[in-house]
Amino acid sequence: MRFKLPTEYDVLVVGSGHAGIEAALAAARMGCRTLMLTQNLDTIGQMSCNPAIGGLGKGHIVREIDAMGGAMGLNADATGIQFRMLNRSKGPSVRAPRVQCDKKAYQFRMKALLESADNLDIKQATVSQVTVDDRRAVGVETDLGLRIAANAVVITSGTFLRGLLHVGESRKPGGRMGDASSNLSENLRQLGFQVGRFKTGTPCRLNARSIDFSRCAIQIGDEPPPTFTFDPEEVASGQGKEIFTLNSIRAGKFHVEQLPCWITATTTVTHDIVRANLHRSPLYAGRIKGTGPRYCPSIEDKVVKFSTRAAHQIFLEPEGCHTSEYYVNGISTSLPYDVQLQLIQSIPGLEQAEIMRPGYAVEYDYFPPTQLFPTLETKLISGLYFAGQVNGTSGYEEAAAQGLIAGANAALKVQALPPFILNRREAYIGVLIDDLVTKGTEEPYRMFTSRAEDRLFLRHDNADQRLTGRAYTIQLISKSRHARFQQKMRLLELARSTAVETKFRGIPIAQLFKRPNFRMQDLPPDIFSCVPTAIWELVATDFKYEGYATRQREQNRKLERRSDQLIPNGLDYNNISGLRSETRQKLANLRPGSIRQAARISGITPADVAIISIWLSKNNLHHATSQ
Questions:
Q1: Which residues, 6 or more positions from 41, have their beta carbon under 8 angstroms from its beta carbon?
Q2: Neighbours of 129 (CB within 10 A)
């Protein structure tokens, strides 16, 4: 018997992972009556793999999400147990924050945030089909026969669509270990969507009491801890109301009790164990059909594809303040339990280690994202949006970014307002979505800084300058936050004009900032004190990178003019130094006829294209263009 829920919603979000959370919160912030449906209310915001947020490329995305009012960065700051800035010794454009979170605190704090959000309802239900009328999504139906009406539907089902878990010879349905899979993809297939198959995996978790940390190298967090949120005062905004915020603001400073991570490595014995048991690996025995992530390989792939390596680094990362579980970063695997235990105990420091949860692989359905508009609305069904791993991406951060954009555009469509689209030159999120909807992806997509043509401009520290104003125009940002942002922009303008108009030792300060040996602290006290230090840091970086960014833009323009340059049919890509091995492999297989065609291949980055174009020009092939 079917029953129709009396309440009708503007936006309905299916799934409560990182994409679903941002989609639901975005639509609700924009004033739409929103419903989130999840198979299990107890696993909202669960970190299925590593309880960490950020990293190279990914950290940039999280700061962009925060700049547009999203929840991921703030929640990571509030529940983080180790904070690091990666690539600190390199230029600001490739630095990226990364936070190891308390797994349960992150999850429960996010659930509390959702439950307290205005305009948002949360219900436990398994969606069995999307209701469609005249090629327009009008709601969903659950496996219990409950019909729910909505003007827009956002699908964020992660790895749960026909999910299949693998540990050695054993396999069973599931989206992650302990949770059921979903058959919704069959309904979407019947509606006409193309469906593909990907796989991902996760390593085992170990009992900390069984690890000999004295045999491992310690890795501590940075002091002061770098935050994701541009508005750190908000970290403490929920204190007193909920118990899951671990960190605080004291005397204007961000305070964290950081926990260490530890480093060890595999051995030749580890590799021998893996090689001897490859026939028992579902990946190498042919039981897994889906394509896995190239940039997060299993230990089986590492041993086979990097056979000359004597060791692979392993990071032991705590899963929280009040648990003994440690995440073993670097040995994702689907080998049988007995083999996992054997290989773990061949690693220094883990000789007596006890496995609390085994590693496993999961296969799942995804929908090739070329079936989407840049708004993430499907081309086939009006008012239906896809976000997250259902679009072929990997990672919490990529999923959350898509969720925010899909949720915002679903709300705008319901309100009959123009769409919200970020382009490649203003955000990594723009690069992400443009890559997906124009190129598609042949493997789980992961963000890298090399994918962005304007990566020198798309720094993590200027994401609010690029995006907060735009987000405010569609009500993703509150008036109070926008007022604080405007005050920051006024201080930045004051510092910039001071740097241009004021000379120190006869030289404009703007020119001094470009010198590697000049520090902000060298400024006269009356000038240095006119704005906060953080403002001077941003201005100094802008001037330091000004020339590089200008040259990059000019290179991009030249590359665009050369896009019709022909690539000789018999070109041996092994002769072009600087190309990654996977780039050479793809180009050799697909044989693009021009620079433009090469740029449209999934996985080929702007950096790859620039290397090829420059090589052709240096070898006097720059004159060859299509007619």
A1: 16, 111, 122, 124
A2: 18
Q: What is the mean pLDDT of residues 225-236?
A: 87
* DSSP strand pairing (9-14 vs 146-155): parallel
Report which of 534, 538, 23 is spatially closest to residue 232, judged by C-alpha positions.
534
Residue showing tokens 């204190």: 239
The residue assigned the tokens 């002061």 is 224
Q: Under a CB-based contact definition with an 8 Å cutoff, are residues 56 and 449 in contact? A: yes
32 has pLDDT over 60:
yes
Q: In 10 A of CB 19, how many CB atoms?
A: 34
Q: Are strands 217-219 and 80-86 parallel, antiparallel or unpaired?
A: unpaired
Q: Which two tokens stand for residue 412?
A: 């705008």
Residue 68 to residue 478: CA distance in whole angstroms: 10
Question: Which pairs from 544-548 meet CB under 8 Å and 24+ separation?
Answer: 544/92, 544/513, 544/514, 545/91, 545/92, 545/93, 545/456, 545/457, 545/459, 546/514, 547/514, 548/456
The pLDDT score that the predictor gives to residue 238 is 54
Whole-structure pTM over 0.90, yes or no? yes
How far is the C-alpha of 296 from the C-alpha of 398, rounded, in Å? Answer: 15
* Structure tokens belonging to residue 297: 């390989």
Determine the residue type at 34.
T
Output b/e per residue, 238-276; b: 16+ Cβ within 10 A. beeeeebbbbeeeeeebebebbbbbebbbbeebbebbee
pLDDT in tens, 14-25: 999 999 999 999
Q: Which residues of 279-307 are buried (b: 16+ CB within 10 A; e: fewer)?
A: eebbbbeebbebbbbbebbbbbbbbbeee
Query: Cβ distance 78 to 478 under 8 Å?
Result: no
What are the phi and psi torsion angles at 412 (to 5°)? -65, -40
